[in-house]
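Slide 14.
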Amino acid sequence: MLLLSNDLKRERQQGKGPVSGSRGQPITPSFPTTEETGYDRVVFLSVGFVCGSLSLSPPTITSSPRHLFRLYILHALSPPFPSYSYRGISFCNSESMSDNENGPPEVSAWAELKLPDLLFNDDIRELHAAIGKEWDYLQQSACQTAAGRAMWKHVVHDPVAGLLAGETQLRSFYDKIQKDRLKNAPEISGVILAVRTLWFDSKLEAALGSFNGGEAQVVLLGADPKKYNHLPLRGRDTEKPLPLDDWLTALPQRRMDARAYRLSSLKESDVFEVDFPEVLQIKTSLLQAAMEPINEHQHLRMTAKSLTRVAADIRANDWVEKLQTSGYMPEKNTVWVLEGILYYLSHSQAMQVLKIIADNCAVTHTVLLADFMNKSSTMLSSSTFHFYSDWPDHLLPTLGFSDVKLSQIGDPDANFGLLQDPLNMFDKLRSLPRSVQTNPDDGTPCRRLYLVQASGSPK
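Slide 15: predicted structure.
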């Protein structure tokens, strides 16, 4: 396969790297220009070879997450070209086309919106109608997170994400992705949600493996931003829908997740989910509907050893007591998951939660998985974020954690092949020292999200 842009066209015309014909003579094909095609790149895909001939079929239009292409079929006498990857988009020769006939997985995943059958169930519709009526936009951001996982199902395994998201959020997220693709956005909506989810999933599996087969517990903490109305809102309109245009404001909570139903790594672990009672009630009802057998082969199963839901407010002083009453054992190895939670809390509340978890390091092997925002991230004009840490890898050791590892979106362990565009904003941020608060190139704030793994054990 040959990928040729207008720059390569000029190289061909200048005699650099000519295309060879059937007699080994240089051939300069007539390349459509940008003005003729409306696109800035032309893809030539080798799909067949005809002795002594060079022909160009009528063009067809195809798309990718990053670019729109006009695809021409080129027949020439030439050895098969190898598979080729360009800016994260894979192309293959005629022999491998059969294995990838639907194109890159994200193209197939976003070709059309397919709503889960269960969303047409009357009881499910009623539950999501209650969410739309009774939850404010911040609470509904949890459903938006689920919609993001559903839209990125080609990389994130979550069989109930669409059910937890609901039709409204799915359609909204799908429309945003289509707009991003049409305008060739360097980051497609939801990519940071996908990366964050994959990071937490992979680190959770690794942490459980580090216990060397010992019994383990996993505690998933949730928080309700609606309960924090006493905090300054920095001028935001509480009735305005959560904007998706900024990647940080499009990074809401984890609460509508179902790790206990989708991660096989939890098969030997007792899982505790701490959240507000109204959230747990609706989530439980949705998941119970998914567990009803549609037919003898298709229904949801729990993958964790056990799941206990604990109705509690992590801002209160009694949430640990409620957790222990529900069966949590402080002396057992524990992984604490705080995904999309800390920055909704005030500074004192977040520090209190972190200190409670850190104190467990003196009792048993304890692992914390959490994401932190830096100060610039919390200063968005429409922000409802409050707690921040520019240096969480310095903060956590002061609380009692002995080993802290920090990653930024785009790092080798926080990329997952989803950030291939060389112009993506995350690589730009990573190229700047963390002490820099303002990008010297364009004057924009350096808004960072830190993914942090911390651990500690009794000395």
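Speaker note: The chain has a mean pLDDT of 75.
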